[in-house]
Write a structure and sequence with these properties.
Elements (H helix, E strand, L loop, with lengths): L13 E5 L2 E5 L1 H4 L4 E6 L23 H15 L6 E3 L8 E3 L20 E4 L5 E6 L3 E7 L4 E7 L1 H5 L2 H13 L7 E4 L9 E3 H10 L2 H7 E3 L4 E4 L1 H11 L7 E2 L15 H4 L6 E7 L1
Parallel strand pairs: 4-7, 5-6, 10-14
Antiparallel strand pairs: 1-2, 2-3, 3-15, 6-9, 7-15, 8-9, 8-10, 11-13, 12-13
């Protein structure tokens, strides 16, 4: 399968294949000892039809047994047990939850006791955070000094709410993280060329980004329609939160440009499964 990279001269992500499962990792994060991470693709699962084949959502109509088998296969490839996962409850908030040992398995092997959680942070070894996507932006955070990680879901609402900065602040408050120690990655998601939004969305971005940044973030094309750059918006947010530019990995991989490789809500008109982002301490 041919993958369309947004900028082929900057190979920010590595394509891995193990035991028939294809998943993505970041070379920068691969170089940090004591963590496990990955991002799923559509390839290597057992789901059928519009969910084919590595669907990780229990709530979109797929067979539960198939989704469970997909987690088993993906976990074996990346290196985690489904029993150690802790999942989000994504509703486009900027709520970030501190994950503890008691959360192990939430949303995967047992019901979640919380709602409205789009970001998670933890310093508990053996727990693996999991968030889900089909065009929205995954945000990975690794603090190798304080031995803590974070994973947040950032759609346009989360980006306008600067959930990336909220996550960094939560790690500072909870673990004593220094932003300059953090490594961050922006995950596969919809690119600016594919992401058309209406003027009301742009007005929300104008409220929270400076006028001199607008040219980097969006352009109008008439009829009240704009193209919005969530990748650059999140990079700006992370840098303004104190993360060094050279420690932020970009995806250069658009979900909507690669609908056979990655699930995309826009490309499929909503007929799809979910991808997953995973990050944990060993």
């Amino acid at each position: 399968m041919k993958i369309k990279w947004h900028n082929s001269s900057i190979p920010e992500m590595k394509v891995n294949e193990k035991e028939g499962v294809t998943y993505l990792t970041y070379p920068m994060l691969d170089g940090i000892s004591g963590i496990t991470h990955g991002f799923s693709t559509r390839l290597g699962g057992v789901s059928r039809g519009i969910y084919s084949s590595m669907n990780l959502s229990f709530s979109r109509g797929d067979e539960e047994e198939a989704v469970q088998e997909n987690y088993r296969r993906l976990g074996a490839a990346i290196g985690f047990s489904p029993e150690d996962l802790v999942s989000s409850d994504q509703t486009h908030t900027t709520n970030v939850r501190v994950i503890t040992e008691g959360d192990r398995g939430n949303g995967i092997t047992k019901p979640r006791p919380y709602t409205d959680v789009d970001g998670m942070i933890t310093d508990v070894p053996g727990l693996v955070l999991a968030t889900f996507y089909a065009d929205c932006v995954p945000l990975y955070f690794v603090d190798p000094v304080k031995r803590a990680v974070g994973l947040s879901h950032s759609g346009w609402r989360g980006t306008a709410g600067k959930i990336g900065a909220v996550t960094v602040e939560k790690m500072k408050e909870t673990f004593g993280t220094s932003p300059s120690d953090l490594y961050a990655a922006i995950g596969p998601s919809i690119c600016q060329d594919c992401y058309e939004v209406s003027e009301d969305v742009i007005e929300e971005f104008k409220k929270v980004f400076r006028p001199e940044q607008w040219e980097l973030l969006f352009y109008g094309k008439g009829g009240g329609k704009f193209q919005l750059n969530l990748w650059e918006a999140n990079r700006i947010i992370l840098m303004e939160a104190g993360i060094l530019r050279e420690r932020i990995s970009m995806p250069n991989l658009c979900t909507c440009c690669n609908p056979e490789f990655l699930f995309s809500h826009r490309a499929s008109k909503g007929k799809r499964g979910n991808l997953g982002a995973f990050l944990g301490l060993l």
